[in-house]
């Protein structure tokens, strides 16, 4: 009888411990999920935007060293482009395009470190799409403001009023294992800009994205040439070895 009571007590205790464990796991998963959903639609200037980008940095850190890092970083770059478009449409600010370029630079670094041809091709295609959509945005700005193509300054404007940032606009990199996690400016001051300033920023963004694309393609080309060179060296070594074996066999009676 006593043994039966002890067994029932152990079973009850195990069930309670299991229920407590499951509850703890659910809470641990619920909190980050709730934060992600809460900050999902945040754009630069919103109070929840640092939370959004902070969760992204944590995600990259947790995935550090895996092949998923470049792919996830490309998704975050897509986010920056969507945010830049929304911010310009809603508040007339181009701050989001600075963050887009910064995120694209981080993605470039991660893709370069992995040297994956599929990721490279996908990223180049994404940049082409960004540039096409930026061209469409430029046309919309021109039509809305009544600026003709001839009135638009093709080069750097003589006087350009910068959008103030509370943190430096240039990204700083911090090594994490074999990956590079780039800390981006998150706290920004949103200010409506003139159509000329918007067009200038869009032109600059296109040029910066083009440079990023060229660097990624250049790295892929160099990687391919390196692989071909290694293959030629191996074939040459194999040929020299065969020649040496043939000579030694011909010298032996």
User: How does the helix and strand content classify structurally?
Assistant: mainly alpha
The percent range for strand residues is under 5%
Count of individual beta strands: 2
Tally of individual domains:
1
* Span between termini: 95 Å
Strand order of the largest sheet: 1-2
What does this structure look like?
The protein has helices at residues 2-39, 49-62, 68-91, 95-114, 117-145, 195-251; strands at 172-176, 179-183. It has a two-stranded antiparallel sheet. The chain is mainly alpha-helical. It has one domain (33-221). It contains six helices and two strands, in the order αααααββα. The radius of gyration is 28 Å and the shape is elongated. α4 packs parallel to α6 (195-251).
Q: What's the short story on this structure?
A:
This protein has one domain (33-221). It has helices at 2-39, 49-62, 68-91, 95-114, 117-145, 195-251; strands at 172-176, 179-183.
Q: Which key phrases capture this entry?
A:
253 residues, mainly alpha, elongated, 6 helices
Helix and strand arrangement:
Blueprint (H helix, E strand, L loop, with lengths): L1 H38 L9 H14 L5 H24 L3 H20 L2 H29 L26 E5 L2 E5 L11 H57 L2
Antiparallel strand pairs: 1-2
Helix pairs in contact: 1-2, 3-4, 3-5, 4-6, 5-6
């Amino acid at each position: 009888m006593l043994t039966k009571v002890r067994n029932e007590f152990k079973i009850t205790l195990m069930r309670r411990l299991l229920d407590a464990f499951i509850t703890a796991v659910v809470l641990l998963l619920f909190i980050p999920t709730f934060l992600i959903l809460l900050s999902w639609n945040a754009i630069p200037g919103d109070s929840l935007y640092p939370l959004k980008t902070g969760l992204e940095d944590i995600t990259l850190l947790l995935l550090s060293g895996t092949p998923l890092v470049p792919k996830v970083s490309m998704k975050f770059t897509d986010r920056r482009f969507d945010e830049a478009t929304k911010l310009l449409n809603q508040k007339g600010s181009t701050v989001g395009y600075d963050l887009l370029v910064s995120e694209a630079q981080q993605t470039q670094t991660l893709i370069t470190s992995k040297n994956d041809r599929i990721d490279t091709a996908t990223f180049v295609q994404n940049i082409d799409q960004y540039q096409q959509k930026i061209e469409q945005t430029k046309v919309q700005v021109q039509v809305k403001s009544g600026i003709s193509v001839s009135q638009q300054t093709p080069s750097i404007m003589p006087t350009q009023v910068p959008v103030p940032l509370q943190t430096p606009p240039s990204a700083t990199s911090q090594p994490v294992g074999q990956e590079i996690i780039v800390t981006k400016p998150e706290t920004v001051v949103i200010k409506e800009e003139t159509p000329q300033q918007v067009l200038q920023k869009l032109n600059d963004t296109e040029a910066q994205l083009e440079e990023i694309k060229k660097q990624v393609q250049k790295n892929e080309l160099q990687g391919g040439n390196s692989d071909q060179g290694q293959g030629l060296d191996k074939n040459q070594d194999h040929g020299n070895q065969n020649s040496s074996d043939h000579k030694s066999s011909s010298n032996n009676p």
